[in-house]
Model the fold of this input.
Amino acid sequence: WSETKISFSTFSNFENNRVTTLTIPAQFPLQGNSTKRNKQLQAGYQMIGHIMSHLAACDTGRPESILYAPMARALDSLAATNAHIKEAIFYTDAQENTGAFSMYRDTDVAKVVSNPEQVKAFFEREVPLNSLKGVTIYIIYNAPTPLEESRFLLIANLWGAMFISHGAHVVIGANLPTN
Done:
């Protein structure tokens, strides 16, 4: 019966592209109609599927992928809300690719392995994180090859450790957990 608000967006070298927000308004249980509410929720689930399939089909067509900065901003914004449930789902290959840092540059990948604290400090300078206490973060990517999976896990685990150090609960995997 609580309000549910879900925002969907794509990330690219413009950092945060089109944002679509789905809102199911709150209703007072004693005054609400449970049949009507169930229909609203079913329509919401269908809309989520439609939005997700549309976003997955979007091609940004740009040479860079700025991922950390918009993720960090979105997480800080979510943490600052008074929502009872604060969850962020990022479906991403996590391949940050800018002039300053690129997961496609062997020297930068080597830094993540050999000196993760230096890489964490780099990202924290880009966009410092506030407290993420009470936020659950899902970083999801179903990699098509073992190499892409290892690259994903390398940076996703680094970001996950950063988010955990700021109080978040982090889940990294190929799929969303169903329980």
User: Anything to note?
Assistant: The mean pLDDT is 83. The CA atoms of residues 137 and 170 lie 5 Å apart. The beta strands are 4-9, 19-24, 86-91, 135-140, 169-173. The longest strand covers residues 4-9.
